[in-house]
Amino acid sequence: MSYRIMRRGLAVAVALGGLLLSAPAGAASTDAGSVAAPRPTLVPVGTGSPELESQRQATTRAAATASGRRTSAALAPPQPCWQNVSFRRFGLTRYVSMELQYSGDRKYELRARSDSVGPWELFTLCRDPFSEVTTIRSQSNHNYVSVEEAYQGTIYAMLRARTGEVNLGPWELFYSDIEPGQGYCGQIRANSNGLFVAAEEDYPGTSKGMLRARTTAAQIGTWETFCY
């Protein structure tokens, strides 16, 4: 099911039973916000770094398993991957950052909190256009983004860029209904618990904007909508 969003002029139509999200007056049709960000770069198959090509292969294997139309990862075409992808919560100019300086259980936490794009806000994304299986990797610490399902309470299913190469599994797989660089906004759903990623705007202080996979399809709104 597609939850794709495209901004045109002053409004955004969301395919969620007729829900309509208003855009700020004077907003661009690409919903690019007021802060310039690097455009995602599509990396041709076989031309990326060893790290990127490994991510491409991992995404291809996961997509082959997830899609009923494919029975063998060996027969599946390599998945498209983009570098320099930045995420911004819809309606805001706050980009998603990977908190490199946090410690303990929150080390490498993802938060929608930055008003500009630097190394902590850049990710590599690979996405199968058929199954929508997606992997996201921080370009700052080179780890995959994972959903922390073992966490409890207000940090349940927090997103952290903490998984290395050898540990890629269900917690590191997502479904996204858009591809980078096309001027669209949409949702990101976690494979492990089936819930959509939200930015916790009500959280205080250093927790504000924390990304968590905790929203059902019926509850999707602006907090669950990202532009990249």
Automatic annotation (TrEMBL):
It comes from Micromonospora maritima. Keywords: Signal. Residues 1-27 form the signal peptide. Residues 55-70 have a biased composition (Low complexity). The lineage of its organism: Bacteria, Bacillati, Actinomycetota, Actinomycetes, Micromonosporales. Residues 30-70 are annotated as: Disordered. This is Fascin domain-containing protein.
